[in-house]
Write a structure and sequence with these properties.
The chain has 3 helices and 5 strands, in the order βααββαββ. Helices cover 32% and strands 27% of the residues. The protein has a single domain, classed as Heat Shock Protein 90, CATH 3.30.565. The chain is an alpha+beta fold and 133 residues long. α1 runs antiparallel to α2 and α2 runs antiparallel to α3. A hairpin with a 3-residue loop joins β2 and β3. It has a 5-stranded antiparallel sheet with strand order 1-2-3-5-4, covered by helices on one side.
Length: 133
């Protein structure tokens, strides 16, 4: 297993830092389409933390033989604010696609409380041909 984590709190561009960490960590371990999906999920989770909780505290990425787990933590306490089945935004909505994309791309995802707030966890399993090993 490979583990990568960065502190995002106070960064001017936390989504950019998260995307860079994911790409660096997955370099040489997965094909570009899978990496792009993981980057998009990480970007959306960090963006949601910033938008709805005021800041993302940190992100970690664990790479396993079967896929990856992404965790983004914020200091928000309301886990019910994260819908379990996000609705699709219509073409005129300016937002609302983030968790819908996470729901479509992730094999599983959810939210849980922790001692500093809450964390949203997304699991992306490798599909046939994803792993470059």
């Amino acid at each position: 297993m490979t583990h990568a984590a960065i502190d995002l709190y106070g960064l001017e561009a936390p989504q950019s830092a998260a995307r860079h960490m994911v790409r660096t960590t997955l370099a040489g371990t997965a094909d570009s389409e899978y990496t792009d999906d993981v980057v998009l999920v990480a970007d959306e989770l960090v963006g949601n933390a910033v938008e709805h909780a005021g800041a993302a505290l940190d992100i970690c990425l664990d790479v396993y033989d079967w896929g990856v787990a992404i965790q983004v933590r914020d200091d928000g306490e309301d886990t019910t604010a994260v819908p379990g089945a996000p609705p699709a935004a219509d073409e005129y909505d300016e937002g609302g696609r983030g968790l819908f994309l996470v729901d479509v791309l992730a094999s599983a995802w959810g939210v849980q409380r922790d001692k500093k707030g809450k964390r949203v966890i997304a699991i992306l399993l490798y599909r046939a041909g994803d792993a470059d090993r």
